[in-house]
Amino acid sequence: MLDSWLTLYYTPYIGAKRFQQLIQYFGSAQNAVQADNLQWQAAGIPTSVLSHRQKNQQHKVEQALKWMNSCESHTILTFQDENYPPLLKEIHDPPMILFVKGHLSTLLTPQIAIVGARKPTSEGLYNSELFAAELASAGLTITSGLALGVDQAAHQAAVNIQKPTIAVLGTGLNEIYPKSHTKLSQEILLNHGALISEYPLYMPPKPQNFPRRNRIIAGLSLGTLVIEATLKSGSLITARLSMEENREVFTIPGSIHQPQSRGCHQLIREGAVLVESTIDIRTALSGWIETSDSTLQADLFKKEAIAEQQTPAIRSPRTQISTPNTLKSKQALKPIELAQDHPQYTLYQHLKTPKSINQLVELLQQDASTITTDLMLLELEAVITADRGFYQQKQS
């Protein structure tokens, strides 16, 4: 059965969306592999894809199976596997195949994603280590992307107290990136953690793959904590994907003079929960973690006592958060023009009114991961805005 899943997985131009399409139409991967081209056409697969079925992918399938059988801690999960993480199944565009190295059971534990800047401030690094250690001690598995900066600090903090952590790679499992994190990846495995990837084992780092893997980080987790992020940070993608899937998003405010704080402040405007300590997160996720009620109540009392001793801050009137309806009222302004040969022109044209990623998937018939990447590119060009999971052309 697994070889049929891998055969589909390695077939060119069969991404997650078409993979799902085939499984739903034929009932199983084996039936899909055995079906002829006419049946694939009936399932909605374009004729341009059919010629690629003739290419022999057997050596890749055998290589993957050999890797899995070479070590007890190597696993290849299919979407229909009983050990496939249930929260990840709920996202709009779940990976059909997951390569796992390490402890499979850790994928089924309650998780919190911790993401943020690759070049954080010293305070950002401190907060990454502090929050990761405290949340791991409270019974949450720390999930992140093995990147430099906040990711690294969060993974290392869990490892330092011998708690499990999960690294979601934007490369194949045999291509650790960055190379400097090879030792950290080994320490993760030694502490009951896991490395996972949807990419082939020897897939090298490619820029377009890192935004795509962010949906897995968000999908595995009960919530996402963003610790420092610029307005162009990929961490904002992870946070917004969490919002799209109705998961909690937490963020720590920072100095108005630091670029690394601006992304966090933007998320707060979009509805993220402002947190000052892990108590805020543990309270929101109290049904999922080991912290006893008495311990949490004691911590809350301590936090309130400290707050009462401090000089009250002058509070400005609550900023009104934009919603899709309030966004529509801004249409009097002129949208920024894009050239018709722009790679994201078609997507951009659909953003004259606010759209969610799920709406865009239905309109464009594309994978959520592809749309997410294109939205990020448009955001980097500063031609669209994002507000509480809705995207719209920027007005000028």
Subunit organisation of the chains? single chain
Globally, the shape reads globular
Question: Which value, in Å, is the CA radius of gyration?
Answer: 22 Å
Could you give the count of β-strands?
11
Report the portion of residues in β strands: 5-15%
Overall tally of domains:
3
- The name CATH uses for the topology of the largest domain is Rossmann fold
- Strand line-up in the sheet with most strands: 1-2-6-5-4-3-7-8-9
Could you give a short account of the major beta sheet?
9 strands, mixed
Would you kindly provide a written description of the structure presented here, covering whatever features stand out?
By secondary structure, the chain is an alpha/beta fold. It folds into 3 domains: 1-57; 104-306, Rossmann fold (3-Layer(aba) Sandwich); 324-393, Arc Repressor Mutant, subunit A. The longest helix is centred in the C-terminal third of the chain and has 17 residues, at 293-309. It contains 19 helices and 11 strands. Helix 8 (122-137) packs across helix 9, helix 11 (209-220) crosses helix 12 (235-244) and helix 11 (209-220) packs across helix 19.
